[in-house]
């Protein structure tokens, strides 16, 4: 039997990476955080002072660098050309520029190829924005994870405050809405729910409840493959 390929898409703060890490572990699948790849390219572009609208330079950069992941007890570390950038890719500066960088066709082509190469080698649970539509259109399971914007902003707010950041809730909510609009409005592989995706609205649900629902959806898909 071929290993399961699970596509998990949805807007910012829906809980994708949190639940994906744990669900992948329970299912014995490799977790692939595609947002971290776009963040890695954005981080490197900022380091090299490449303008986030310079398509040629961003495309060249995406084809030049090597992005890899390493499993840790806490989740996953991200490396670019061997440098650990796990923390560096979560700064407000990277978050503020990542949507522009990830809208560039050449960047998307390079990242989608990398994502498809990983999925060709192993069973995956991949999270992102275009996994069910573009990266793995024939995935065995497609889940669209969402929650109200209020709740998504509150979750992100709690997370950043716990890390010691000072921020304004309304500003954070407006930033999330702006990023969602940009991600769903771009020309190349926009954030979009696949027609055959299962919608999972996580508003009011705990992390554990969401993981259980994902495992239920995956086990019925796995049973169909037997
Ligand atoms: O965790 P958070 O929701 O903040 O975002 P992320 O998953 O780390 O993704 C960061 C950004 O990368 C998104 O806002 C998108 O602009 C872009 N992205 C994308 O274009 N396609 C993907 N498959 C994943 C992320
Ligand atoms: O990857 P994405 O942007 O979709 O979201 P995330 O970074 O996994 O989750 C954003 C925050 O929401 C994290 O701090 C999670 O712990 C929290 N969360 C939650 O409170 N309840 C859930 N059901 C899922 C996530």
Task: Tell me about this structure.
- It is a single chain.
- With 226 residues, the protein is an alpha/beta fold.
- It has a single domain (5-219), classed as P-loop containing nucleotide triphosphate hydrolases (Rossmann fold), CATH 3.40.50.300.
- Helix content is 53%, strand content 17%.
- It has 9 helices and 8 strands.
- It is globular.
Proportion in helices: 40-55%
Distance between the termini: 7 Å
User: Tally the helices: what do you get?
Assistant: 9
Rg over CA atoms, rounded to whole Å, is 17 Å
Q: What is the number of beta strands?
A: 8
Binding site for ATP: 10-18
Family: Belongs to the cytidylate kinase family. Type 1 subfamily.
Main location: cytoplasm
Pfam family, one: Cytidylate_kin
Q: Outline of this structure?
A:
This protein is an alpha/beta fold and 226 residues long. It has one domain: 3-Layer(aba) Sandwich (Rossmann fold).
Topology:
Layout: E1 5-9, H1 16-27, E2 30-33, H2 34-47, H3 55-64, E3 67-72, E4 75-80, E5 83-84, H4 92-102, H5 105-121, E6 124-128, H6 131-135, E7 141-146, H7 149-162, H8 169-185, E8 198-201, H9 207-225
Parallel strand pairs: 1-6, 1-7, 2-6, 7-8
Antiparallel strand pairs: 3-4, 4-5
Helix pairs in contact: 1-9, 2-4, 2-5, 3-5, 7-8
The structure holds cytidine-5'-diphosphate (2 copies).
């Amino acid at each position: 039997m071929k290993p399961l390929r699970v596509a998990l898409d949805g807007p910012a703060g829906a809980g994708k990476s949190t639940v994906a890490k744990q669900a992948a572990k329970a299912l014995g699948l490799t977790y692939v955080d595609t947002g971290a790849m776009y963040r890695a390219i954005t981080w490197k572009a900022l380091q090299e002072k490449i303008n986030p609208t310079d398509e040629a330079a961003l495309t060249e950069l995406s084809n030049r660098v090597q992005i890899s992941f390493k499993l840790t007890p806490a989740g996953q570390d991200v490396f670019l050309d061997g440098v650990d950038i796990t923390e560096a890719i979560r700064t407000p500066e990277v978050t503020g520029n990542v949507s522009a960088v990830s809208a560039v066709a050449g960047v998307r082509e390079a990242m989608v190829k990398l994502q498809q190469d990983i999925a060709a080698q192993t069973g995956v649970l991949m999270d992102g924005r275009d996994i069910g539509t573009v990266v793995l259109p024939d995935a065995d399971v497609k889940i669209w994870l969402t929650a109200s914007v209020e709740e998504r902003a509150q979750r992100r707010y709690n997370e950043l405050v716990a890390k010691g950041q000072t921020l304004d809730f309304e500003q954070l909510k407006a930033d999330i809405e702006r990023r969602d609009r940009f991600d769903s409005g771009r020309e190349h592989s926009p954030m979009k729910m696949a027609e055959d995706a299962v919608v999972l609205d996580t508003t009011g649900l705990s992390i554990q409840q969401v993981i259980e629902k994902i495992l239920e959806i995956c086990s019925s898909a796995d049973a169909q493959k037997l």
